[in-house]
Amino acid sequence: MQEIIHFMQHIKDLKAIQSVLSWDQETYMPPEAAEARAEQVATLAAQIHQLVTSERAHRLVKEARRLLDNGEVEGRRRRLLELFVEDIERENKLPEEHIRRLAFLTSEAQVVWRQAREENNFPAFAPYLKQLIELQQQTAEYLGYEEHPYDALLDAYEPGMTVRQLRPLFTELKSFLKQVLEVVQQTDRIIDRRWLFQYYPESDQVEFAKETVKAVGFDFARGRVDLSTHPFCTSFAPVDVRLTTRVHPQDFRTCFFSLLHEAGHGMYEQGLGGEYPRSFAISGASMGIHESQSLFWEDIIGRSAPFWRWNMPRMAQVFPQQVVGIDPQEAFRAVNVVEPGFIRIDADELTYHFHIILRFELELQLFEGTLSVSVIPEAWNAKMEEDLGLLPPTDALGCLQDIHWSFGGFGYFPTYTLGKLYAAMFWEQLQKEIPDVEEGIERGEFQPILRWLRKNIHYHGRLKKPAEIVMGVCGQPLSIAAFQRYLSDKLEQVYELNLKG
Predict the structure, then answer these.
(1) Alpha-carbon span 381 to 122, nearest angstrom
(2) CA 249 to CA 461: how far, in whole Å?
(3) In this predicted model, what pLDDT tens digit does every residue of 110-154 receive, in sequence order?
(4) d(CA 311, CA 303)
(5) Half-sphere exposure (Cβ direction) of 43: Cα atoms closer than 13 Å
(6) Counting Cβ atoms within 10 Å, is residue 320 exposed (0-12), middle (13-18) or buried (19+)?
(7) From residue 150, how far is each of 323, 353, 365 by CA, in Å?
(8) SS3 per-residue string spanning 324-360
(9) CA distance 308 to 256
(10) What DSSP string describes 97-140?
(11) Between 20 and 30 A from 158 (CA), which of 199, 260, 268, 469?
């Protein structure tokens, strides 16, 4: 058992080094270093693959299976061994050359995507995207699947989830969202948001956002914040968690909510630990559970009325000219305005999920072979116009806006919406267990919330599967019901509507 744990720690350390290279690429690496960095990342990926496909790895898997079959281990230790077997066997299905090619291509593609986005040049990125799709189609074939090739990729981000489950869930959700959007768009209530779009000095925005995430619980002794093209969180260990954000001098929301979102991820990573440090257990249960933590802090806490009763006096001290005359209730309404837009990460809580479902539908078509890369911009724009009544004027505001496809992250996008559904369920349960939670938020007391999340979600790491966590916390399986209640309640407050009648 000890040798198996040491082997896992060796692999986790190498993957942490890999993450350092990727983090540096997104933050400080000079542009001309792209090809050299791609080679470095590919070499490291190949070495990791050699380790997990080695004779030693096969021997340890055999030993792990013996321990499991003989019933010699129980509880969390048993689940750790199951994880070890699952991860090693999954990796062994992928040839080394395939791993190397994918690592090299994704490292290069991210640099090309960044430039293509800046230049609004989809044709420059298209050849890389085509290769990535072909490689990930091969990945699906190597890994195997029962019904749909997309299932093999989806499972890497959300273990146990399938297209068969997602399609009806998203269909039901989309129907609900369309009904609510229609009601909201018919209201004549005017909400003043001009204060959000005044000039906010970039350095002041970053410092204010950093102080905010520190207040809610992100530990800067074990983390830091930098700037990048696309906000993200990466963790090399629970004691070394990196966040990035971006800043728009004329839009206060961009930096503030991006950093709250990434801090949600970061606090999850900082909360991982337990008796198996640096093992395969020290990671989020899934990307959906991970996104539940980021969207919990960004939206459910950060866009709540009690939060803004706490936050507005702070803003008045740092940005007195920008927020003069704005009371907390006006601020709460302003940050919750429903307004269809082009950019996913800037979208409100209602229209956000149209963005996710659009990407999910396009990814399915790409992997079913019914959509070619060359017509992605047209297909994207058609769906945007159908769902949100918007036609992106450029591909930078359309199909080039997200980094995910450049790192081969097909199957990732659905986890954002799954995360919000999980988050709404967790929030309902937390309110039952901490009845005065909103009064605490208004006083800036966030530790009871973080402690609850640590105990019920963070502590488990990967030792529980997403469905087990949800059932264990909420006593019921995943559904859209809690999110429906949450969103309806909030928009009734914002727009003074009756959405339940």
Answers:
(1) 13
(2) 37
(3) 999 999 999 999 999 999 999 999 999 999 999 999 999 999 999
(4) 10
(5) 8
(6) exposed
(7) 47, 20, 10
(8) CCCCHHHHHHHCCCCCCCCCHHHCCCCCHHHHHHHHH
(9) 13
(10) HHHHHHHHHHHHHHHHHHHHHHHT-HHHHHHHHHHHHHHHHHHH
(11) 260
- How many CB atoms within 10 Å of residue 438? 15
Q: What is the DSSP string of 276-293?
A: STTSTTSS-S-HHHHHHH
Select from 486, 335, 500 the least CA-distant residue to 421: 486
* Tokens of residue 421, six digits: 């559904």
Radius of gyration of the chain (CA): 23
The rounded distance, in Å, linking the Cα atoms of 404 and 287 is 13
Domain span(s) for CATH 1.10.1370.30 in the chain: 163-193+280-495
> Quick one: three-class SS letters along 383-441?
HHHHHHCCCCCCCCCCCCCCCHHHHCCCCCCHHHHHHHHHHHHHHHHHHHHCCCHHHHH
As a residue count, the chain comes to 501
Distance in angstroms (rounded) separating the CA atoms of residues 42 and 35: 11
Q: Kindly report, residue by residue over 55-101, the tens digit of the pLDDT.
A: 999 999 999 999 999 998 999 999 999 999 999 999 999 999 999 89
> For residues 244 and 262, is the Cβ–Cβ distance under 8 A?
yes
User: Other C-beta atoms within 10 Å of 74: how many?
Assistant: 8
262 is catalytic: yes
- The pLDDT, as a whole number, for residue 501 is 58
CATH class belonging to 163-193+280-495? mainly alpha
Task: Measure the CA–CA gap between 261 and 47, rounded to whole angstroms.
Answer: 33
Tokens of 400: 């080039």
The single residue listed with the structure tokens 């395969």 is: 280
Q: How many CB atoms lie under 10 A from the CB of residue 122? A: 21
Pairing between strand 233-237 and 223-227?
A: unpaired
Q: How far apart are CA 372 and CA 365, in angstroms?
A: 8
Q: Which two tokens stand for residue 401?
A: 């806006």
- Global pTM reads 0.94
